[in-house]
Amino acid sequence: MLMTSCALTPKENTTSLENQRPIQDVPLEPEIRKFSQMISKSLEISDQSEISSNEGVEGWYLWSLAPHKKKTKYYLHHYQGKNVIHADAQSSASGLIVPLKAKDITGFDLQWTWKALKNIALADNTQGHVDDAPLRIVLGFEGDKSTLSLKDQLAFDLAKLISGHELPYATLMYIWSEKNGAEEVITNKHISRIKSIVVDSGGQGLGEWRVHRRSIEADFKKAYGENPGKLIAIGIMTDTDNTNDAVQAKYGDIEFQRRSNR
Predict the structure, then answer these.
(1) CA neighbours within 13 Å on the CB side: how many for 207?
(2) SS3 category, 144
């Protein structure tokens, strides 16, 4: 997203926590619905199986970065014995998102599987003009935006002006990065309240199912140096709008796992 200067001033009354959700006026989910337990309409990927609404992917909604951007296509289909999401990005950027009932993630890990079918050679997640990724898990957290710097508040206002969506107080992404190494924390070039942690890197593991389990609380503290607020949204995104590349990827189930006390 390209940011330009704008004569905006922070709001006198900060946005309520409830209105920090990226999409509004949809049912809030208590948990993440598993792709593997959904019924796919087609065994093969086709134009007819493209997700154009929440129909077919219960609890998941299309979400775009900006109205003018080309949207990534997401399909629910049967693949290697289970139902998964297939992402097809052609110079595009959009995602699927679950608005959650505010969830205290203390004591919970996030576990997921994904597969990158191709890397994005020109991508560099530290550089805004080529910040693309074949796979992203996106987490949105609530918090008090009035405590943020003037620069961050202006960036939030400008982001809403461009995208039409509120941004949550803090966003944490797990990404597959082309040039950055595993465990590296990357701060978005335009908004410091968007941070990414690299969990897969380069060409290693391409074409393989990768399984990850992460402590959300520990990773949030690592990225932001503070305790996380409640989790209010989770999403997936495959994007190639900045590099104008084409890439396909798979998302398996995403679920919360309670950490055992040892």
Answers:
(1) 1
(2) coil
CA dihedral 70, 162, 5, 145 (to 10 degrees): -130
What are the tokens at 83?
A: 């139902």
Distance of CA 117 to the CA centre of its chain: 18
Could you write out the DSSP letters of every residue in 72-85? PEEEEEEETTEEEE
Tell me the two tokens of residue 10.
């922070």
pLDDT > 90: percent of the chain: 62
Mean pLDDT is lowest, of 35-49, 82-96, 103-117, 205-219, for 35-49
- The H-or-E segment that residue 163 falls in is helix 150-163
Give the CB-side neighbour count of residue 56, counting CA atoms within 13 A: 19
Tens digits of residue pLDDT in 148-175: 999 998 988 888 887 777 889 999 999 9
Contact by Cβ (8 Å): 35, 85: yes
Residues 19, 23, 24, CA angle at the centre, nearest 5°? Answer: 60
pLDDT higher than 60, residue 16? no
DSSP-derived secondary structure letter, 105? -
Q: Given the structure tokens 């959700």, which residue do they identify?
A: 21
Q: Report how many helices (DSSP H) and strands (DSSP E) the chain contains, helices first.
A: 2, 12
Query: HSE-up of 232 (CA within 13 Å, CB side)?
Result: 23
Structure tokens given for 109:
């890990």
